Amino acid sequence: MSSETVKIVDSADVSPDASIGAGSSIWHLAQVREGVRMGENCIVGRGAYIGTAVEMGDNCKVQNYALVYEPAKLADGVFIGPAVVLTNDTYPRAINADGSLKSAHDWEPVGVTIDRGAAIGARATCVAPVTIGAWATVAAGAVVVKDVPAYALMAGVPARRIGWVGESGVPLAPGDEDAVWVCPTTGDRYIETDGTLTKEAL
């Protein structure tokens, strides 16, 4: 752990086996488990949970009381809103069919993968295994049960695509040509092809 520039408040529970990048902050009552690999300049809010061996890139924000269960993988610049849940058990049960208590050996954890710059809104749930594409936005309270394409704006239960967002996070507006979308903030143009969006090269 790079302790020189890492801020960990006294009430946080951070495993000595976790790797925390320079400039990161871990706030009150947060728990960071063994084997976590956290990049630089990350923020883990009050009461958040980062599970065993979770991988986080640089500049990630995990807001208060979010639950990031292993083996989740977060790329650079991912935003996890307050009380978000990233699950890890496709068929959850407390007991086996014979009534015995399930142990770690009775199930195989599966993870949620979130690509660069994506944002998951408050109290949304991502049901593993799913991949959230780069720069996508999942609206507050949504439940994601299928992979999400890059730049998609997802909402509802179950979540469905209701539009596109650019890298600034603002919904894209239709352009002056078919299948062209424009960011009202930056002016960047995006091309839609068969349900996927790509940023137009300058």
- The unreliable regions are none
Q: Main β-sheet: number of strands, strand sense, barrel status?
A: 9 strands, mixed
Q: Termini, distance in Å? A: 40 Å
Order of helices and strands: EEEEEEEEEEEEEEEEEEEEEEEEEE
Secondary structural class: mainly beta
The oligomeric status of these chains comes to single chain
**Per DSSP, what share of the residues sits in E-state strands of 2 or more residues?**
25-35%
Q: Please tell me the overall pLDDT.
A: 95
Estimated helix fraction: under 10%
Number of strands: 26
SS element count, helices: 0
Overall shape:
globular
Rg over CA atoms, rounded to whole Å, is: 18 Å
Strand order of the largest sheet: 1-4-7-10-13-16-19-21-22
Walkthrough of the structure:
The chain has 202 residues and is mainly beta. Helices cover 0% and strands 32% of the residues. The protein has strands spanning 7-8, 13-14, 19-20, 25-26, 31-32, 37-38, 43-44, 49-50, 55-56, 61-62, 67-68, 73-74, 79-80, 85-86, 112-114, 119-120, 125-126, 130-132, 137-138, 143-144, 152-155, 160-164, 173-174, 180-182, 189-193, 196-199. The chain is globular. It starts with 6 loop residues before the first strand and ends with a strand. The mean pLDDT is 95.
